[in-house]
Amino acid sequence: MDNVRYTLFWACVLTSKFAFSYWLQIRPLIAPTKQILEATDVRYKWHEFFPDGNRAAVVALWAPVLMIYFMDTQIWYSIWSSGIGAFVGLLQHLGEIRNVEQLQLRFQIFPSAFQFSLMPVDDSVTRTVWAGAKDLLKRLSLRYGWSSVYDKMEWGQIEGGRFAHVWNEIIKTFREEDLISDREVELMEIPQGAWRVSVFQWPSTLLANQILLALYSIRYHRGDDKSVWNIICKNEYRKCAVVESYESMKHVIRKILKDDSDEFHIFIAIFEEIDFAIRKDRFTETFKLPELMEIHARVVELISFLLTRPAEKHKQKVVKDLQNLYEGLLHDFPLQPHIFLESIKARASYPQNNKGTELFMDAVELPDKGDEHFFKNLKRLHTTLSTRDPLLYVPKGLEARRRISFFSNSLFMTMPRAPQVERMLAFSVLTPYYNEEVIFSKHQLKEENEDGVTILFYLQRIFPEDWLNFLERMKKLELNESELWEKDDALELRLWASFRGQTLARTVRGMMYYKRALEVQTFLDSATEDELLGIKELLERGSSTNSRGSMRSIGSMGSIGSELEVAELNRQRKLEQDLANAAMKFTYVVTCQIYGAQKKANDVRAADILRLMKTHTGLRIAYVDERSESYFDENIGEYVTRQLYYSVLVKYDPDLKQEVEIYRIRLPGPLKLGEGKPENQNHALIFTRGDAVQTIDMNQEMYFEEAIKMRNLLQEFTVYHGTRKPTILGVREHVFTGSVSSLAWFMSAQETVFVTLSQRVLANPLKIRMHYGHPDVFDRLWFLTRGGISKASRTINISEDIFAGFNCTLRGGNVTHHEYIQAGKGRDVGLNQIAMFEAKVASGNGEQILSRDVYRLGHHLDFFRMLSFYYTTVGFFVSNMMVVLTVYTFLWGRVYLALSGIEESLTSGSPALENSALTATLNQQLVVQLGLLTALPMVVEDALEHGFTTALWNMITMQLQLASIFFTFSMGTRCHYFGRTLLHGGAKYRATGRGFVVKHEKFAENYRLYSRSHFVKGIELLLLLLCYLAYGVSSSSGTYILVNISSWFLALTWVMGPFVFNPSGFDWLKTVEDFGDFMQWIWFKGDVFVKVEQSWEIWWEEEQAHLRTTGLWGKLLEIVLDLRFFIFQYGIVYHLGITGNNTSIFVYLASWSYMLFAALLHFILSNANEKLAANNHGLYRAIQALAIAIITALVVVLWVVTNFTFVDIIASFLAFLPTGWGIIQICLVLRRPFLENSPLWSTIVAVARLYDLAMGIIVMAPVAVLSWLPGFQAMQTRILYNEAFSRGLQISRLLAGKRNRNID
Length: 1304
Prior knowledge:
Residues 204-385 form the Callose synthase helical domain. By secondary structure, the chain is of the alpha/beta class.
């Protein structure tokens, strides 16, 4: 069945591709091609070696179309995969609960859904087909709201208690992470058995305004009790709010009145009369419904004052409020007060001859101010009674809302039934770590960048709600912001910031949620009702009444109190057992490769790692220990020293209060023989245990509510997916860095599509999902016997993750993908970081093409599965490169036709031919622009999970924040490094850094990073466009714009992209500073100890490193590609006025005299500069003046004697400068063994320096102009960061300026 599905998928893709290619690519070009071939009298404007220009024109016309033909399958794959991925996502019920409003509507089903999906079944009984069918029916009934079991959910049900326990634990973790405030905790948590209310106590946020809605609904209703009750029961939350409020009010009255007072018994009698009327369906006949609003107001007034925790001196106010309530209940509320009063007298001893002011004076007993449990429930009652508007914005934080929505939605998705913890598969988590940040230091938080912005200030603006919640939490510890800096080396502040960065502390906290979740699940697997409620709740219930208002016997409290010690002892024993069970099922190993060296060097990171071990006692640290050992060598008869290497596993022992060693395994030699990260994983894999291992990067995190679903996920290993059980379980990721900046948002959106929709389609229907990264879960035993989870050969395995997938597929494994559980993932947030990441991935894919794994897959996969593999791995990068090459082919073809004169000959006098050619060209451009459809998956996935309106708005916002520039720029990065790796190899790991990018990158840094990958190529495209603008034939400017607008956009994006997304990239003062820094870098001489950041010469040498290691074919192909730069000179010299329309070959040969003259002039001036500039400055100036005079004289002579014009000067630059660049590139290829030791080499280096200087000035010129324009910098900051940070940044600058003035 699997092969049928992916065969049908590719049949649809290929049918669409071939139909589109024929009707919109090939067919429109047939008529122009025939006309071009039939055309005669082609007049050339240069020396044509092959006079059959018609065929050359056909080649120029068809070449880009053919390139598009071979790459547009990628576009059609994106379109079809978007549709199929959305369909599969709909079947998986993704995005059904998108927001808090939808969550509130379905929350009443959550206890039943939680019990069904996440609580264990009795797996000791063999599951039958009938049992499976019943499970399916139950899942469907919950999913589509057919089930009504939740209508009967009461406080006494064990299912509700389990759900409440887990839900409250989730809310607790949210508060610990500062995602919600204390008030939001009160509104969102579920009281467990509080005051023994007979209905299930939903979170207060669901009950808000339900009481007032109920009162307004029945205020003037004239029906009987049944109709009133039907009105209330139309909404489950409203019914529960009414019942809970009434029964809670009983408890409040009992709490504040003395048991032996007459007033106490009067109120009990009143409640019994009300209960009796309700029970006999006589409530509407006994009481006035309109008076309920007045009773409600008096109750709210009483509760509001009680919440102030009044002292004895304020008892009179409580007495007064009770008297008002008493009067209302006894005289205003009943339809017949005298009959009601007689009933009360019959039930209780009514005090005689008491005035109203004397009632309750001696009966009131104020609650203890320290009774937090009472006041907590009293506040809940007050919220339920007094809230007028629905609480639709609780929680306020977007992250908390997102996580709750996803968890709630996942309860209705299909997942295996959970086993008990003691029967679940044991698993380990493995995280490789090298030398990244563990916890931000105090200095890092305080350090200001050039704009006076610190990391802490930045985080406060990006996460304003989290910061306020953190301060609120610290306030309960009696710490204000200034004291936090002094308390324990600002540890709380450092942790708060670290948990919002890409640090090891964040990862460890998240992964240790697994242990916490297992402990909770172990407790719930065998918990009784009393254990769910806890000791305090039991005592509270012991003093409460039942739902009818009768009192429990006082003796019951005594019996509970006498059992308190036994219950507490049993609880401790069970807790120890739960901890032991959880520890047996979960192991977390962080493989800190150089932890041993860090300890020896007293590195602060080692101390932070030890702090993490102290905080999380279940954490294990693996590292490589290097020791020197002396031994006696009998062969030479003396002692020698050798290095020994060990894999070591350590933990923190809380009893010994120190780090202790668990295992030490001797290695045969140094660890790092291949790539660092896979070697780091491989040496620690032996320390993991269990049936599965989850690989987690150190920029990831897990959430407590997701960790609860881990035992469901592990059960997937026991389920057949197709014909085999899975060996790798793919897990969905959420990119949590999207809120940092616009760039981070773009990267987050791109990565979200890859880890959701793309992986979904790869797993089903294509059956070709590999292992693309963490947090996939491996069948540990399967992989241990088949080569491990990482391949570590140097260079070829730079992208080590996917080779695990290759290995799995080749050995008959099965890879699946599951989206009911998610892990957090950090991504790069700055353009330079993103560019290095894209370069690493592109280089890795280039190496994959050269690997034997891909070769073997090509031999083992069938045709359609191989198509899936190709277009989802290396084929994506090939197609990406083809898009760029299509633009090059199109522009070079148009320039060839323009410079040779073929275009003018074929279009002049033939409007039909001109229009046909234009139509064909526009069709080519249309297909190129269809590449925008590759963004379709992003829109589709966003629409699936957040709704079409949200997706459309996000896409519009992205475009306003210049997302197109970012994605086009990234395309250039991928193309450059993928192509370079194919030609020359040499992929290498590039550390991207995981910090916050709030600093301005200097121009020299951007030039070093993007010069060869973007600037050179962008300038080449601009030269081609200018050349075609000058010499091409266009019927109008509109035609030119239509034909070339995409090419202009690509060229300008590659030149200006780094500065558009560079913080303060258009600040005039910074631009001036950057220019000076760039000039200093360009002219600084290289030396042995000089770094790349200091000297152009060192950088230039490093930039050519790939040419020193490439093979013969790589050099030949590089030379062939460099020959294109000579076409500029060959074509343009024949268009100079000085040639007089002469098309002889000698014109071109004579033009080389210009190049020889320029080379001679540079040789003379450079030698003069080197030998005379310092010793004989006057002679040096004289030589410079003579050179200027000779050049001027030559220009004047040419002006007078020939047809030389001023335009020829500009055209000459356009002609000869690319030739010089081409010569330099060829010389670099031939450097060894021909040119490096020759006298010409110094001249080549000097000319190369001048070219880089010229290109730097060309790139910086528009940056300087835009920096000079007012308001442009503010607009850029607004684009880069959200509105709050933009305001904060301006305030920070003002404060900095004010502080400086005060100092002065």
